[in-house]
Amino acid sequence: MNEPRNWPTGLKKTRQRLAVLEVLESTRELLTVSEICARLDASEGTPSISTVYRVLDLFEKKGVVVKTNAISGDTAVYALNRFEHRHYAICVACKKIIAMDNCPMESFVPSLADEGFHVVGHDLQIMGFCRECDQKRGG
Amino acid sequence: MNEPRNWPTGLKKTRQRLAVLEVLESTRELLTVSEICARLDASEGTPSISTVYRVLDLFEKKGVVVKTNAISGDTAVYALNRFEHRHYAICVACKKIIAMDNCPMESFVPSLADEGFHVVGHDLQIMGFCRECDQKRGG
DNA sequence: CAACAAATGCGAACGATTCGCATGTACGCT
DNA sequence: AGCGTACATGCGAATCGTTCGCATTTGTTG
Fold it and tell me: CA B136, C1' D14: Å apart?
């Protein structure tokens, strides 16, 4: 188990937390809790599913991971916070997730009825067909 | 019960479906299923909750309503499809939802590794504090 | 090494949504 | 108008993701 560079202050370093972190460090995919659990099963010291939820909640609060449930709507996905601003395109056929390199919000001022609205973040996904599925659909 | 202009072909006009449609026609808010049920309770012929789900699924497939679960993540919200392109800003404190009049995607080409990706839609929300909640937070 | 607070495991609880199946009803046909 | 059938509904149970309560274990600090 490797030593993460920036362990948040005041958090105990437990086997379970390090294991979850290791899974997230090992990929750039967005993982659901069950996917994280599946990858944990391979290694020893597998935490229970409630612990995984608690660890992820904690990590999210501390800014170690980012969470979004925008992709499938009914299941949250998590990724290590690499301090990149990222959005994703999702293939509606095969559910493949493709990272986007740019962001339309960089130079966008929303037009809102509440003019005092203080923007702190945003969430964006693009839906469509990946090249492969688009070809399968034919013309 | 009024006659909707564009009833999708091949759908039986039932009391329950018309009632759900009426609720959605009566507001521009985004409503959860339980909110819809609450508004149905006032009128007679209240459909069961499973029927409300089924009616909404059907309406969504037919393009009569739009569904999104991006707002709260764990609860879907529905609105009549008024064939407007709309996004929303959500106050993270009071959960107020404010419609946005413009869209950053109008002139945006996503940069994706899959160059054949065929975009068919997108979903965007802005998070922040509404004027009121922002003031309460103080400086 | 002891002590305490914090973390974990387990299973139960929960809310949103879906499903199965028996019953009811809209709509086309006569 | 009346019939018949495919489709819609109601009800409750099942499911899925997630949270919670509580007894037990484990990091960390001194």
Answer: 45
pLDDT for position B123: 86
Could you identify the residue whose CA is nearest to the C1' atom of nucleotide C9?
Answer: A48
Q: Supply the pLDDT for residue A31.
A: 94
Domains of chain B with CATH codes: 15-80 (1.10.10.10), 87-136 (3.30.1490)
Residue among B74, B113, B120 whose CB faces A127 most closely = B120
What CA–CA distance (Å, rounded) separates A112 from A114?
A: 5
Contact A65, A23 (CB under 8 A): no
- Give the whole-angstrom CA distance, residue A79 versus residue A35: 12
Beta-strand runs (E) in B12-117: 31-32, 65-68, 77-80, 87-91, 97-100
| Binned average pLDDT, 10 residues per bin, chain B of 139 residues | 66 94 93 94 83 96 88 86 89 84 92 93 89 82
Burial of B30 per CB tally in 10 Å (0-12, 13-18, 19+): buried
Q: Per-residue pLDDT for A111 more than 80?
A: yes
Residue A11 (CA) to nucleotide D7 (C1'), in angstroms, measures 58
Rounded Cα distance, A110 and A39, in Å: 40
Please indicate if any CB of chain B lies within 8 Å of the CB of A130: yes
- Give chain A positions within 8 Å (CB) of B118: 128-131, 134
Edge to edge, the sheet with strand B77-80 lists B31-32, B77-80, B65-68
* Inter-chain touch A118–B105, beta carbons under 8 Å: no
* Between A15 and A1, the higher pLDDT residue: A15
- On whether any CB of chain B is under 8 Å from the CB of A117, the answer is yes
